[in-house]
Specification:
By secondary structure, the protein is mainly beta. It has strands at residues 2-12, 26-36, 38-39, 44-47, 54-57, 69-76, 82-91, 98-103, 113-117, 120-121, 126-129, 133-140, 148-156.
Length: 160
């Protein structure tokens, strides 16, 4: 089992029914921990060749992925390339099971987040990262499992 700590900025609004609160608004930093039973202890590192798709999928695809699951990948293409993510299939529990991906290799840096994908996504939808490095991770909760995803990840020469 592995624990991942998430910190979320939040605002605590005063209770409107309490006349003695002097309308004070307090900023609070909330932390919560999610425990995953099915966590890979290592990041899957993939070196991409130019224009050669690399296929990745959720665990057990096309069967349902496990609950309480976390998996992370780091992709590196040749210097000067961009990375294209092509969805071949994507079905996850909406809002609860999702894929995040972004630029670079630091998935903890949410300023690099490009997109969150959940629910049912049309096949052949593409996203481009304007960098030769990309991180991607998949998270599932404990409620429902779906078939998951199948993606192609490709290093491409940037368009002029």
């Amino acid at each position: 089992m592995k624990a991942i700590v998430f910190d979320l900025p939040s605002r605590h609004d005063p209770d409107e029914n309490n006349k003695n609160n002097n309308d004070i608004i307090t900023s609070v930093l909330l932390s919560f921990i999610i425990f995953f039973d099915n966590v890979s202890d290592s990041v899957i590192t993939v070196t991409l060749d130019l224009a050669v798709p690399h296929q990745i999928s959720s665990t057990d695809y096309p069967e349902n992925y496990p609950s309480d699951h976390y998996q992370e990948w780091h992709f590196t293409g040749p210097t000067g390339t961009h990375i294209v993510l092509t969805i071949r299939s994507h079905t996850t529990e909406t809002y609860h099971d999702y894929v995040n991906f972004g630029r670079g290799h630091d998935s903890a840096d949410m300023s690099t987040l490009a997109k969150t994908i959940d629910g049912d996504i049309s096949d052949d939808t593409t996203y481009t990262i304007d960098d030769n490095e990309m991180w991607l991770y998949f998270v599932s909760d404990y409620l429902e499992e779906e078939t998951g995803f199948l993606y192609d990840v490709t290093a491409v020469t940037p368009s002029a």
